[in-house]
């Protein structure tokens, strides 16, 4: 079984799915001859040709809009937005069309598009290259939002996203792209989009996270009997797995790198309070980025949640 980083795992998923289904199209800026800004699509144009791997003009709204049209008429487009901070011109297309087509046509049409984009900090990138605004997409009914935390999960979740009949926003942490390798099987396997993963079992506190923050969480709770949940898919949210853990531990810490106010952690916290409040032994604590624009590289490490901040929050709910 080969060892892959997240870049090569996603590339493998794209190659295998494109070989399986001739209707899959990959589209975006520099995805063809250059193999993508992070080399995710490297080798695809040589294997599948320029009719299925399409270099587009610099127009995020145009890329997503064209992809929506292709999806409605029976193709399976996978579009790449180079950085999450560039996706905002395409939000009208995503919200007003991709997310609504099934409802607008009363189920006569669906929109099986996958919108891939890197997100988050950790590589010291310039302004608009480190956004983590996943909550925007979680707020829009009709969209699924997926955030893998490892190469193995990235491949299985991407295959499931490609085969889904509804639009999926697939967020890939730039920090995780080449951070580590793990065994990733060749050939088909899928991971359900609606399920979270208990990444570490424990009994004293539940720590909920996703994407790159999951790994800082592991380091922070090394010497604590914590149960760590990797949400993997933010919408639809796997409430069952969360509630089961909360009923066991009675204590919750939520970790994400997006700003705190209206971040997705607020939704998770509110859901827990509504459904399992009587099981809670302490207030829920969120460890997040700050409510400021993502700072430029010199201050990036001060912005992101650290192991120390996560550990302090866990200790606080433990001693409450």
Q: What do you see in this structure?
A:
With 320 residues, this protein is of the alpha/beta class. Helices cover 36% and strands 19% of the residues. Helix 1 packs parallel to helix 7. The longest helix is centred in the N-terminal third of the chain and has 15 residues. The chain starts with a strand and ends with a helix.
Which features would summarize this protein structure in a list?
14 strands, globular, 5-stranded mixed sheet, 7-stranded mixed sheet, alpha/beta, 320 residues, single chain, 12 helices
Question: What's the gist of this structure?
Answer:
With 320 residues, this protein is α/β, with parallel strands linked by helices. The protein has helices at 6-20, 44-48, 60-72, 91-98, 101-104, 134-138, 151-163, 213-220, 239-249, 264-276, 297-303, 307-319, and strands at residues 3-4, 24-28, 53-55, 76-80, 114-119, 144-146, 168-173, 182-183, 197-200, 205-209, 226-230, 233-235, 252-259, 285-289.
């Amino acid at each position: 079984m080969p060892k892959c980083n997240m870049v090569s795992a996603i590339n493998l998923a794209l190659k295998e799915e494109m070989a399986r289904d001739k209707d899959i199209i990959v589209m975006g800026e520099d995805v063809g001859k250059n193999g993508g800004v992070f080399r995710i699509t490297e080798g695809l144009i040589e294997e599948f040709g320029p009719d299925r791997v399409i270099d587009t003009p610099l127009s995020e709204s145009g890329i997503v809009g064209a992809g929506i049209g292709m999806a409605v008429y029976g193709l399976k487009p996978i579009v790449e937005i180079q950085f999450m901070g560039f996706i905002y011109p395409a939000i009208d297309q995503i919200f007003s069309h991709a997310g609504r087509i099934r409802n607008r046509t009363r189920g006569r049409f669906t929109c099986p598009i996958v919108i891939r984009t890197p997100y988050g900090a950790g590589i010291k990138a310039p302004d608009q290259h480190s956004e983590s605004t996943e909550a925007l997409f979680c707020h829009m009914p009709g969209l699924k939002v997926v955030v893998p935390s490892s190469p193995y999960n990235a491949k299985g979740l991407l295959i499931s996203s490609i085969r889904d009949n509804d639009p999926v926003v697939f967020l890939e942490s730039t920090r995780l792209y080449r951070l580590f390798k793990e065994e990733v099987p060749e050939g088909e396997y899928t991971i359900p989009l609606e399920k979270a993963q208990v990444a570490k079992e424990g009994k004293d506190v539940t720590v909920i996270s996703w994407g790159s923050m999951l790994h800082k969480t592991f380091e922070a709770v090394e010497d604590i009997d914590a149960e760590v949940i990797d949400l993997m898919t933010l919408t639809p949210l796997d409430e069952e797995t969360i509630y089961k853990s909360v009923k066991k531990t009675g204590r919750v810490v939520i970790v994400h790198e997006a700003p705190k106010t209206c971040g997705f952690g607020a939704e998770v916290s509110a859901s827990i309070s509504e459904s399992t409040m009587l099981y809670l032994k302490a207030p829920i604590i969120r460890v997040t980025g700050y409510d400021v624009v993502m700072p430029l590289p010199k201050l990036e490490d001060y912005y992101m949640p650290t192991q120390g901040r996560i550990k302090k929050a866990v200790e606080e709910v433990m001693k409450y």
